[in-house]
Amino acid sequence: MSLFDGRVRKDNAGLFTVEAADGALLCCRAATRLRNGGQGVKPGDLVRGEDNGDGTGFITAVLPRRNDFIRPSVCNIDLLVIAVSASTPATPLYNIDKQTALAALNGADCCIAVTKHDTETDGAQTELLQRVYTQAGCEVVVTSAATGEGVDALRRRLEGRVSAFSGASGVGKSSLMNALYPAFSAQVGEISGRIARGRNTTRLTELFKAGPSTYVADTPGFTMLDLVRYDIIPLERIHDAFPDLRPYMDRCRYRKCTHTGEDGCAVAAAVEQGLASEERWESFCRMYGELKAKKPY
Ligand SMILES: Nc1nc2c(ncn2[C@@H]2O[C@H](COP(=O)(O)OP(=O)(O)OP(=O)(O)O)[C@@H](O)[C@H]2O)c(=O)[nH]1
Ligand SMILES: [Zn+2]
Questions:
Q1: Is the pLDDT of residue 69 over 60?
Q2: Using an 8 Å Cβ cutoff, are 134 and 140 in contact?
Q3: Cα(123) to centroid of ligand 1, in Å?
Q4: The dihedral of CA 169, 174, 180, 181: what is its sign?
């Protein structure tokens, strides 16, 4: 028996597929104390354990997580790719900003993947998204799964990172994933087959391996709605949810400025001067209002 360090690729009802540092896939159970007393084990986790030498192993430790998404159950995400259609269905900027907020609070970078560029007639939506989100510090890549535009550029952005995709239903996430990684569906099936026990046919979150250190979380159901519903932003942390506006918030005239329209607000001044975008500030104000109105549990 030897020891291994690895990354959890999939959780199939307590039977984990772990990619060991040498690239081998191990089918592992986890120590009961990790599952019950601890934080659990989930896709994205970096773990240590014992390799039984027969393709199976036993997870004995979970390394601290840099972030942890509740639903889908995935952690240690470097990059959240937010898919937004250039045409239909239209995504309100506020919905995008809820997602960038969650990424920021989780210490993950954000990339706006504009989808279906081939169907856009006037270019206005793409221009808006590029302007607002480049200024907000996000990466923006304009793509079309139909023509292949931007697919190589996006693939390069994903290289060497662990990414998850989100976006409203129908914006083209699956089409984009397939354009990025044609081997995607095949590999998902391969891992599932290895540990399938014939009982549960539901597709579960798993990390697709797209390169030596490139992973993409295949997260059925990782839609915008899930992000918004399951990960709750506390009002005290809203400032950190808008990293582009954050630097101005310490420069307001009043220390208790909420940055939602008071006199002497440095955020308002930054927007006025074109240093920050009005759209992002509007989202901040709206989110502030909604969180403030929320009843404590
Ligand atoms: N013209 C065009 N159509 C696209 C493109 N990408 C996706 N579509 C179409 O848009 C529809 C939705 O695409 P999907 O890839 O299934 O979208 P999705 O975001 O995965 O949707 P859910 O599975 O519901 O979350 C399909 O009819 C696709 O054919 C594109 O780049 N150009
Ligand atoms: Zn202010």
A1: yes
A2: yes
A3: 19
A4: positive
Locate the ligand 1 atom nearest the alpha carbon of residue 223 and give its number: 25
| CATH 3.40.30.10 describes domain 234-293 | no
CB 115 near ligand 1, within 6 Å: yes
Whether domain 2-64 has CATH 2.40.50.140: yes
pLDDT at 239 over 80: yes
Ligand 1 neighbourhood includes 114 CB (under 6 angstroms): no
Question: How much is the average pLDDT of 10-31?
Answer: 94
Cβ of residue 150 lying under 6 Å from some atom of ligand 1: no
Give nearest CA residue, ligand 1 atom 22.
169
Does any ligand 1 atom lie closer than 6 A to the CB of residue 172? Answer: yes
278 alpha carbon – ligand 2 mean position (Å): 14
ipTM of the complex: 0.97
Mean pLDDT score of the chain, rounded to an integer? Answer: 88
**Closest ligand by atom to 171 CA:** 1
Percent of the chain with pLDDT over 90: 69
Question: Strand pairing of 162-166 and 79-85?
Answer: parallel
Q: Is 29 helix (H, G, I), strand (E, B) or coil?
A: strand
What is the rounded distance in angstroms from the CA atom of residue 224 to the CA atom of residue 98?
9
Q: How far apart are CA 76 and CA 161, in angstroms?
A: 10
CA-closest residue to ligand 1 atom 24 = 169
Is the pLDDT at 189 greater than 60, yes or no? no
> Where does CATH 2.40.50.140 sit in the chain?
2-64
- The domain made up of 69-227 has a fold known as Rossmann fold (3.40.50)
